[in-house]
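Q: Given only this backbone (178 positions), what sequence would you predict?
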């Protein structure tokens, strides 16, 4: 007899956004609870897996760090198929990274049209250097039908909430479509 799977749901999540906004830091903070100050530009795709419980359901999270240079974007697109959720990350101290979210959304909506989307304003520990207000982030997210949260990978603010928020929304959506 085949063994029962160790989880009820498999959830594939993507982290996308400009380089340096903190995607890899959020991922390692969430999966390892470590924060590294060393910047290593991501080549290819980093996938980290973590088993969690969401509303009593055993969930295996597969988190894909899609932080490749733009020139690779076309090549890696097919790998993102089947993602249930996408986190669009910007840096609250970098206006350009926020403006670029539109482009990121257009790119990814085509590939994963049914994913649950979340806008993530990272580096909220750098309040003094903030250039994108919480209201701007929130209204952009509202306009595009996304969830919204501000995080700090370095201070471990809202990192768990970010993942739980999107995971819960994905499970709800799956329940609804049954
Ligand atoms: P990625 O290119 O989007 O994967 O960004 P990284 O995770 O490599 O982070 C880029 C830089 O931002 C690194 O120097 C990190 O230490 C820094 N960083 C990431 N998250 C935060 C944060 O929440 N607060 C602060 N102050 N720095 C951060
Ligand atoms: Mg990275």
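A: Predicted residues:
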């Amino acid at each position: 007899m085949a063994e029962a799977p160790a989880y009820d749901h498999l959830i594939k999540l993507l982290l996308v956004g400009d380089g340096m906004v903190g995607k890899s830091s959020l991922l390692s903070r969430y999966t390892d609870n470590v924060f590294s100050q060393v910047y290593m530009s991501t080549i290819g795709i980093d996938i980290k897996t973590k088993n969690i419980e969401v509303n009593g359901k055993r969930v295996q999270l597969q988190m894909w760090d899609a932080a490749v240079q733009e020139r690779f974007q076309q090549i890696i697109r097919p790998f993102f198929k089947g993602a249930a959720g996408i986190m669009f990350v910007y840096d609250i101290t970098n206006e350009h990274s926020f403006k670029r979210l539109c482009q990121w959304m257009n790119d990814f909506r085509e590939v994963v049209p049914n994913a649950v989307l979340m806008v993530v304003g990272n580096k909220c520990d750098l309040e003094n250097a903030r250039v994108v207000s919480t209201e701007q982030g929130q209204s952009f997210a509202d306009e595009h039908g996304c969830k919204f949260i501000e995080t700090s990978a370095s201070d471990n603010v809202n990192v768990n909430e970010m993942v739980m928020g999107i995971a819960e929304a994905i499970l709800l959506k799956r329940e609804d479509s049954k």
